[in-house]
Structures are given as C-alpha cells and as structure tokens.
Amino acid sequence: MNLGVDRFMQMTPERYQPGIGLRPGGERPDLESLITTLYQAMYETIALHSRMGLNVVVDVGHHNGYSVPRDILPSCARILKGLPVLFVGVHCPIEMVMERRLATWKAGYTEEGMVPEPVRLWQELVHIPGIYDLEVDTSVNSSKECADLIRRQLEEGPPPSAFRRIQS
C-alpha cells in the first residue's frame, strides 16, 4: 500500500489545502490544529494496514516549523508503536532540489536569485531530529538504487529502531 502526503492531499478539501503538505514558516496557523489531526488520521490508517498484514510505503516529511511546535513526528511514532517501521531519511542537496523544481514546476529561485524561504526551511527542518534507520541521497542514487538500498536494509537488518527512539 502506498500511503503518504500526496495521497492524503488529494483527499483533502480545497479549503484545507495544502493539508499535511503545509510547509514550515507558520504561514497558515489557522490550519495547524487540523494538520495535527490529519497526520494522526494518516498514521492510524498506516497502523491499521500494517496490523492487517499489509506492507505499507509512506512518502511523507515531518517538521516542527509551525507557528507553535506541534511535535507531530513523536506523536505519529507512538501511533505505530510495536509495528515494523523502517524510517528512511531521504537527502538531496538544495541545488539539486532547485533544479528539479525548475524542471517539474517551472518554479525555482526568488527574483533575488535566492532559494525560497519555505524550501530552505523544509530542507533543514525535515531532518530534525535526524534519527533514521537508513539514509539515502537521491542526488547520488537513482530511485531504483534507493529502493534497492531500502530492500537490502529490510532483508539484512539490523532491525529498525528509529521510531522506537523517536517515540520517547
């Protein structure tokens, strides 16, 4: 099952967009309490799928860069307590991120030639606290190579422990 930010954003009514895709910076404090609920609902869905014996892949970023700290990641980790979770940190240098944004959305740097603040903050904040079972770099490895690294980690171990450490 593929559950993640893009799937959940597709289901989110327009008035609540960008939903769990809300970037750091506190620009929509009116959505933040709902964002917490949406993340909890997504993680309860993930937990249910896993408890039913289904393998789940989740593509999502977590940050605490809201108008007030929401501590969403530890809360979500607690929802998955006791379930097999391999937490993968996906890295990519900001220069490559900007190249990909330009190629995909034709949107990139500010008029001053700077990385937009929400993009810069995202790059920094999604890697806090930096506790992962595995880290991959999409500027060095292709999507297939990253998937192979993840598969090998699942097959050969060691057993995942990142979410257990994040829960506390």
From TrEMBL:
Top enzyme class: transferase
Residues in coiled coil: none
The protein's name in its UniProt record: Chloramphenicol 3-O phosphotransferase
Protein keywords: Transferase
EC number: 2.7.1.-
MF terms in GO: transferase activity
InterPro entries: CPT, P-loop_NTPase
UniProt source species: Paenibacillus harenae
